[in-house]
Amino acid sequence: MGNKEKRITNNILHKISRAIVKEALENNSMIVLGNLKGVRRNGKGRGFNRKLNNGFPYHRLSQFIEYKAKWLGIKVVKISEKGTSKTCHRCGHIGLRVGSLFKCPNCRYSCNADFNGATNMLKRGMGYMPMLGAPLTVPRTR
Fold first, then answer.
1. Residue 31 and residue 15: Cα distance in Å, rounded?
2. For each of the chain's 142 residues, which pLDDT tens digit applies?
3. pTM attached to this predicted model
4. Domain ranges of the chain
5. Within a 10 A sphere around the Cβ of 12, how many other Cβ atoms?
6. Residue 133 Cα distances to 31, 88, 99, 127, 129, angstroms
């Protein structure tokens, strides 16, 4: 990658990471990142999509997010993504992924596979909240 390409890529990554950290700061949230080991090795897709996946600087983006979040005192948790796209976020059973659609044979629920995986990541991330000193329930205000 040439210097100009590298500068443009870094600029885009800084903008993305800044937006993510800003959103977390405004909502008093923590940031949950998937463990990115093997992301290139497991890169699926055909042609351009595979090249795009294999060429995306995931690690650098996560580094930018982590240092910006740390600077502002925002907690960052890295969790395993294993099984998140195959497990039904409603009932917890292993389902089927057909293209971009997730189907659970147990509870008959179907949704976008990425939504299902993201919801499972959210649940895993919420499991870390007590360890970070955050309450799981928020008291009602009148």
1. 16
2. 689 999 999 999 999 999 999 999 999 989 999 886 655 555 555 554 555 455 688 899 999 999 999 999 999 999 888 889 899 999 999 999 998 999 999 999 999 999 999 999 989 988 877 665 655 555 454 4
3. 0.71
4. 1-79, 82-132
5. 12
6. 14, 28, 39, 12, 6
